[in-house]
Specification:
heterodimer, A: alpha/beta, Rossmann fold, six-stranded mixed sheet, 8 helices, B: Serine Threonine Protein Phosphatase 5, Tetratricopeptide repeat
Chain lengths: 309, 378
């Protein structure tokens, strides 16, 4: 992470935050705080696009800042899922599309297992937290049903809000972000939010109703372009957020396909692996690039690109 | 002249109710007279308070028939003054009432998202307003204000290209009008803001050529800046033009130029939108300079000046998150969530691309009232 101030400079900023009327920062543990005891990497392994299960730690080659790491494979069955639904409810989603979106969201909530939690964030130009972390499915479904569609789209601001929401305790956070169009009212630019994703441990899955036009460029090349000129490449936000956090992005042509898409995301998230290792002793503060490879070249792995200590 | 007098006579006949369906004229000239009579009957009904039925009836008229009325009535410029003095249909009050009738039909079309029909009726209305001004409309006059309101309707509906083209034409018709130039610059600036190479598209669509999009965006920015500079040359007190010039400087990476512009803005203003955006933009400049504390301070000032400004909360949360304080960042957003559901006031940043004064209903209401007052005075 370049350009961050030393810790000593931050006291005033904290004080200023308190000046925002009514701000009361909840005392919850930050993610990837200084002194990270264990690095945890949430990964998906696929063969021909389909998740692969029954792998062992020996199948992975993990490098932290270029140095190979001995990893442990943690069973995800024992770790609850925290599903954050961030849904575009701008005017363009009005009518049957909104009903189909609600149906998809409720299906995702229904698929949660005992101990899992979910939260609901909706956005048009306005980003609103409609339900905070809860395992009460009825409450969540009521919040989903109450959503109405109007206004323009603050996708980028909403994505930032989604990855900034404090995680539910001891869980794997899945931020499932849906949008049907172009951002038209965000303050933050897409590069800022992709950068901010380096400081969270949420895994972003994006579902869109229209794909960004194909360019033949790799995600890394698209990322470089985005940082070069964020305004020109803003529609790459969800694929790049997914890329940064180790998630995936899907484009669907019709809202009728949303239910299947959301359930597919839930299924894929439940077929991932959590790799853990102790951070290298020499690790200083800042950005630590992580590279996860499969020893079997027929397998493809999707993992976050690093972490901020 | 002869033809015009005949037409006028035809209008009088129709208005007096002496032309019935059975007496529908047969020759082309008679048909023209008959259509004119029918048309002005509808306008009179509107003028006399039968608003809803008049709007409904005019909405049912085919476009070519309406266009025929206007083209017929628009022709003999040399005789226009005589006619304006002698016939009710040529009096400014009646012509403006006709313009308002088409405005209402156009706004109805807009509610159905029929932008093309809105533009058609706006064109007809503008024709009547031009005629009412004896084809010599002045900056700041009713025709100018009405056209700016229509253009802002287009902007408000995201029709940036249509608004741009509309205002380009208006800028020729009514030159050196600060309000027209401000709206024109806004349309250009918004087109620059919307420029993207990877807008969502159907599967298989190709990426636009980045160089071409970049040039297009730079051209829009340059045209917008030129418009705002002309606004300030006409009326230096129009702070929105200065604010927009500062925004363009920020977008071009010229933070020093932006600061110079922003420092020329009044430090206190009744217009909270201007204050809010000024704080927001200074915060952005400080953030780019990695002056985190001043950036955060500016964002707090923005929240204080406009407590329903989501962008300021998001910006502050971002500074906190970027400086390793995710809990505090979440706290700031949490505070926003508390307002998000109940807030009825739009963030000025959201309406910035549409024009900061987006009170279009008030604009139109004022124009309708002005036209009505003009009619009553006669």
């Amino acid at each position: 992470m370049s350009g961050l101030p030393a810790r000593g400079c931050l006291a005033l900023i904290v004080g200023l935050a308190a000046l925002v009327p009514g701000t009361s920062a909840q005392q919850q543990p930050p993610r990837f705080a200084a002194g990270t005891a264990v690095v945890s990497i949430d990964v998906l392994v696929t063969r021909d696009g389909k998740p692969v299960t029954n792998l062992t730690a020996a199948d992975f080659d993990v490098r932290d800042s270029g140095a190979a790491q001995p990893v442990q494979l943690n069973g995800i069955e024992s770790v609850p899922v925290a599903l954050l639904l961030a849904l575009d409810t701008s005017a363009s989603v009005r009518g049957p599309a909104l009903d189909q979106l609600k149906d998809a969201a409720k299906a995702a909530v229904s698929s949660l297992r005992a101990g899992d939690q979910a939260a609901l964030l909706t956005f048009s130009q306005n980003v609103a937290l409609r339900a905070t972390w809860t395992d009460d499915k009825h409450k969540l479904q009521t919040a989903i049903d109450a959503a109405t569609a109007q206004g323009s789209t603050s996708l980028t601001d909403a994505a930032f809000a989604a990855i900034t929401l404090p995680p539910a305790r001891l869980s794997r956070t899945l931020a499932l972000i849906f949008t049907d169009g172009d951002d038209s009212s965000s303050w933050l630019n897409a590069a800022t939010v992709v950068d901010a994703a380096r400081r969270t441990d949420a895994v972003v899955y994006g579902v869109t109703l229209s794909a960004a036009p194909s360019s033949g460029a790799t995600l890394d090349e698209r990322r470089a372009k985005l940082f070069e000129d964020p305004g020109l490449y803003r529609s790459s936000l969800l694929p790049l957020l997914a890329h940064e956090t180790g998630g995936e992005a899907f484009a669907r042509a019709d809202t009728k396909d949303l239910r299947a898409a959301f359930l597919d995301v839930m299924a894929r998230f439940n077929q991932r692996y959590v790799l853990t290792y102790a951070p290298p002793h020499a690790a200083g503060s800042g950005w630590h690039p992580v590279e996860v490879r499969m020893k079997d070249p027929a397998l493809t792995v999707t993992a976050r690109r690093g972490y901020t200590q | 002249m002869v033809q015009r007098l005949i037409l006028a006579a035809g209008v009088i006949l129709v208005l007096s109710g002496s032309v019935s369906h059975a007496q529908r004229p047969q020759t082309a000239s008679e048909q023209e007279q008959w259509i004119l009579g029918e048309y002005w009957t509808v306008v009179k009904r509107y003028q006399n308070g039968q608003t809803a039925p008049a709007i409904k009836e005019m909405a049912s008229w085919p476009q070519d028939r309406i266009a025929k009325v206007q083209s017929t009535q628009f022709q003999p410029e040399a005789q226009l003054n005589d006619l304006l003095n002698s016939k009710a249909e040529w009096k400014p009050g009646t012509l403006r009432a006709a313009a308002m009738l088409h405005t209402e039909v156009g706004l109805e079309a807009l509610r159905r998202r029929d932008i093309g029909l809105l533009q058609f009726h706006a064109g007809i209305a503008d024709g009547w307003l031009s005629l009412a001004d004896d084809r010599s409309s002045k900056p700041g006059g009713l025709r100018s204000r009405w056209n700016v309101a229509v253009a802002r309707v287009l902007l408000l509906n995201g029709e940036f290209a249509a608004a741009d083209a509309y205002l380009e034409r208006l800028n020729i018709k009514i030159a050196n009008d600060a309000a027209v130039l401000l709206a024109l610059g806004t349309a250009k600036e918004s087109r620059a803001l919307r420029a993207t190479v990877d807008a969502p598209a159907a599967a298989g669509a190709k990426l636009r050529d980045p160089g071409e999009v970049q040039r297009e965006r730079d051209d829009f920015r340059a045209a917008a800046a030129a418009s705002f500079e002309r606004v300030l040359a006409i009326d230096a007190s129009l702070v929105e033009a200065r604010l927009r010039l500062a925004r363009i400087s920020i977008d071009r990476g010229d933070d020093a130029g932006a600061e110079k512009m922003l420092s020329a803005l009044p430090k206190s203003s009744a217009d909270t939108s201007i204050l809010y955006l000024t704080h927001l933009w200074i915060g952005q400049i400080r953030e780019r300079q990695q002056q985190w504390n001043p950036a955060a301070q500016s964002y707090v000032d923005a929240v204080k000046s406009h407590p329903d400004g989501q962008s300021a909360y998001v910006a502050l949360a971002h500074v906190l998150q970027a400086t390793g304080q995710p809990v505090e960042a979440a706290g700031v957003l949490d505070r926003w969530y508390g307002r998000a559901v109940t807030s009825a006031v739009a963030d000025p940043w959201w309406i910035y691309p549409l024009g900061l004064d987006a009170r279009l209903e008030a604009r139109f209401d004022a124009i309708f009232a002005e036209v009505k007052a003009g009619k009553d005075a006669k």
